[in-house]
Amino acid sequence: xxxxxxxxxxxxxxxxxxxxxxxxxxxxxxxxxxxxxxxxxxxxxxxxxxxxxxxxxxxxxxxxxxxxxxxxxxxxxxxxxxxxxxxxxxxxxxxxxxxxxxxxxxxxxxxxxxxxxxxxxxxxxxxxxxxxxxxxxxxxxxxxxxxxxxxxxxxxxxxxxxxxxxxxxxxxxxxxxxxxxxxxxxxxxxxxxxxxxxxxxxxxxxxxxxxxxxxxxxxxxxxxxxxxxxxxxxxxxxxxxxxxxxxxxxxxxxxxxxxxxxxxxxxxxxxxxxxxxxxxxxxx
Length: 284
Ligand code: HEC
Ligand code: HEC
Description:
The chain has 284 residues and is mostly helical. The chain has helices at residues 3-13, 18-21, 30-34, 50-61, 64-70, 76-86, 97-101, 128-139, 150-161, 177-188, 198-204, 238-248, 259-271, and strands spanning 117-119, 124-126, 209-210, 213-214, 227-229, 234-236, 281-283. Strands 6-5-7 form a 3-stranded mixed β-sheet. Strands 1-2 form a two-stranded antiparallel sheet. Helix 6 crosses helix 9.
């Protein structure tokens, strides 16, 4: 294990020691690291190929989660309930999703493959969860669902499951481009009491251990969410997972569907372009 990595691991265990060693990590001071070379993107080398990372993952966790998912993923219940919700009339206009998107909302097959995407009215990135709440509010006269509530996750998961097996094809062209760039900057920005960035773990140290976890490679970070997580004992969204890592980084967590989290979601989903949607996932 290299010296830098052992320093990183010590930092995770002893956050108080961080201020002392920040200068060593990445061999520059925290302040300089945040905005280097004008582009604001710190140049980091990928620790290892995705294939090598996968080997390590299998060695570390075996096929534990895959086996559990085979025995039944608790998130499957949300998909069933999401289907019922898609046919349920709610709101002042007397409509259900099915009124416009067909029985069981089946016309939305494939729709999830293009999310998140630029939306002109929003002047920003529209996520699938936000689109569903926008339809509830504007098309149905219903109350938007609280993010991470059972019904909100169930509807999102159901609509996304209609695209299972289909390749992700998110666009970052035209008006989407600046939001993708902002997402990338957010991913590489060092901040919080520990002066970490997402990329330092998920690019530079992916495949190495932090505490009892293997740090994941950011390829395939978006294709299996919403996902059932054993640690939560619950199904949650990709943005909840972002916020979990932000908490570990001692960063102030942006609200669900805030601009920063939507841009990050676009950035990470674009990395998965061509990969097949497979919800619900299951993770430790
Ligand atoms: C009164 C008609 C209507 C109802 C009811 C409705 N929608 Fe929509 N939906 C639309 C329209 C119109 C669009 C096109 C984009 C827009 O204007 O928001 C759309 C877009 C979408 C999209 C994006 C499709 C794409 O390919 O980009 C999704 C996903 C979606 N709706 C989900 C839902 C869900 C889930 C519900 C039920 C909670 C629902 N909608 C209820 C009219 C409706
Ligand atoms: C200190 C290292 C560290 C930092 C910094 C960090 N993460 Fe993580 N992250 C982890 C670990 C460890 C996991 C658990 C991997 C697993 O579930 O297999 C994880 C998991 C994730 C996952 C889920 C991966 C999956 O396969 O489902 C996502 C998405 C994610 N992180 C995004 C982020 C984002 C966005 C940031 C920056 C805001 C960030 N992480 C910062 C260590 C880190």
